[in-house]
Structure formats: C-alpha cells, structure tokens
Amino acid sequence: MPFLPYYDHIDPGQGGSSMVIPEWPKPVLDRTEVFACQVCGEIFSSYEDRFQHRFEAHPYPRPLLVLGTQEVNTPRFVITTALSAEEIRPVNAAACRLDGKLVTARALARHIAVARSGFFKVELIGAGGKISVDYEISVEIASDEHAVLVEQEFARLYSPGGVSVASISTFIRATVKARTAQRYVEGLAAYLYGILAKDQRGETTLSQEQGRARLNEASQMLLEIDRPLAVVVAGIVSFQSNAFSRSERLSAVPRLLAAMRWFDSVRTRGLVIPVARPDGYAAPNARVPLDGATDEILAWMDLPAARLRDLAKQIGKRSQQDDWLPEDRIKAKVLLAAIHESEGDVANAAEVARSFRHDPVFSRLAERLISEGKESSQ
Ligand SMILES: [Zn+2]
After folding, report:
1. Which range, of 5-14, 35-44, 150-159, averages the lowest pLDDT?
2. Which of 32-41, 188-197, 199-208, 343-352 has the least mean pLDDT?
3. How far, in Å, is the centroid of ligand 1 from the Cα of 36?
4. How far is CA 51 from CA 46, 56, 93, 114, 176, in A?
5. By CB neighbour count within 10 A (0-12 exposed, 13-18 middle, 19+ buried), where does 10 fall?
6. Average pLDDT of 41-69?
7. How far is the CA of 50 from the centre of ligand 1 (A)?
8. Inside any domain, residue 66
9. What is the extent of the structural domain holding 331?
10. If you measure from the C-alpha of residue 70 to the centroid of ligand 1, how many angstroms do you get, rounded to a whole number?
11. Last residue of a domain, one of 93, 115, 140
C-alpha cells in the first residue's frame, strides 16, 4: 500500500499547536501565509484585509456568522480549532443574542473564543429586525495531549501490511481515551475507509461511490482541525476531487503542493507549464496512507519531462480505465494532453482534449487545445 511522506513538525498556520520534533532538521520551505478570497480568489496578506474585501467587493444581504475562514451557512456548526475573538464575527447584524440574551458583537465573540467545549445558541438580527438567523454552535476543541495521542496511533498504521478495515477498528479503539479529539478520529477514520473503498481493498464492503462520500466527510471534518496531519489529509482529498485551488497550507507535503499548483495553473490559465519540482529537502518524518490512483499520479508528476513522455501509453490506459474514478481519469487525460502538446503533437493533444471538453475544471484547457488542433489541420 502506498504512503505519502510529509513533515509533521511544520506549523502550517499561525497557531503553536503543531507537534514539534526538535531532533529533526527543519527543512527550508515556503511558509508565507496568504489569505485568498473564497469568492474570487484574490490574495491578501492579512485576515483583516481579506475580510474587508470579502464583504465590500461581494455584498452579502443576510446576517451571517463568520468563524475564522468559515462563513457559517448551516444552522449547526462545530468549532474544532481555537479561534481568537477577532476571528468570530457577525456580519450584517444590528443585534446579537447569545443563549437568548442580547449581547454586543464583541461580547459574543469573546464568550465563544474562550470556550474549549460547550454549546451556544446564537441569533443574529438584521437591520430593522426583519431577518434573523439562528445558529447552534458546538465547541469541541481537542487538547494537545489528545491530538498527539491520535497522531501516534495513526502513525502505527504505517506498516508493510497496509491498512485494512481491521486496522482502522484498532485505531478507533486505541483513541477512545482521546475524548476531546473524537472529531479528529472520525475524520481520519472516514478518510481511511474512503481510500480502502476507492481502491476496493483491505476487506472493504463499501462501493467506490460510498468511499467518495466518506472522503468528502473526512475533508469537511479535517479542514477545521488545525493540525499538520489534518491539513495534509484534507489536502489529499482536495486533490482527489480536483479542487486544486485549495493548496493553502500544504507546505508540509511538497509533492502534493507541486502537483496541486500545476493542475491549478492549467485549470485557471488553460496553459501547460513545466511542473515545479521541490529539491533539497530533509527527509520527511511522517506518512499518510494513500489510494493507488493518487499515488500513481503524484509519482508521474515527480518525473522529469522526458521520463514522463515514456509513460504516455500507460497514462493513456489509465485515463480509460473503469476502476479509476472520473476525477482521476480526467487528471490522466490532462497529463496525456500536456505530453502530446510538449511534443508538438497538436492533433493528438486536441483529440485527448475532446474527451474532457465538458469537464467543469479543465474546459478552458480543452477549448484551447481543440481550437489549436483545428487551426493546424487547416
Ligand atoms: Zn473576492
């Protein structure tokens, strides 16, 4: 079973909550933190600047609670990462109620920010009192001790025998004591069940489709947990589901980051660029189990261009293979089209592009290659 190496001692965010292993040399990585607008993608250098831009550039009509990077659009929400009072913001709210009592926005934020566990009813009332939005906010922040226990047990899954339904059960049983980190456990277990189903191995009884649902659940739970392992696993799910713009905070896993950035650039510009290869890193000190297709795609992207061309036939085969999910077949097609284009074979690049012209992620690339194919044949 393949495993993806990463650095578990790199603090991917601003918090000091990541596990630091001092005896490992710190690799030099690009750690500049950027804040992307979730609506238009524009990049800002601070949380505050992005926040200002978000509601000035893209007006939002209703009262809304913003928690960290999340705009809470559901009636129930679980906070699993400690937030500062500045990151808890009611928007478009003329008045706020907390557990039925009228409070100022600032008091609401302070009250929730100091809680490590608990349950709050929040009501935001718009100007004129016409619209009000109700939330039930549950705070379940894992203690460092519990999170570390979960990570240690997760690391035990790295074995030549690989992961199976039985080893996932062992992992869940071993982490029962980590009471405050149960959402972390659930998210990681959903990921593991998801990749077994995706690969149809390890005694899974789930279909590939059910596995995909598990992976999405995992990503939703883990995106909210500020631990390097959670960030890496959520990043893998983003890659699996072709959500390439979500590459923030992936510096702990350079191979994945390089692949995400390549596909994202192809997606947004419709142009094929050389894959940037990270070099000069210290050896990674942790590993995450990976599904076969993701492992193979990441391995292709690690190769020099000439070696990748030799694999065109294999990549073409994968792009048609029934037991690969559509998202992975599309990635193989995009790589194949890129290989043809880099060889100056415009006709074949256009031919491959026709098979993904309706893909919502890569339609821009497809249209360009198809029209260039037409021009060259005239
Ligand atoms: Zn924007």
Report:
1. 5-14
2. 32-41
3. 8
4. 9, 9, 16, 22, 38
5. buried
6. 92
7. 8
8. yes
9. 303-377
10. 14
11. 140
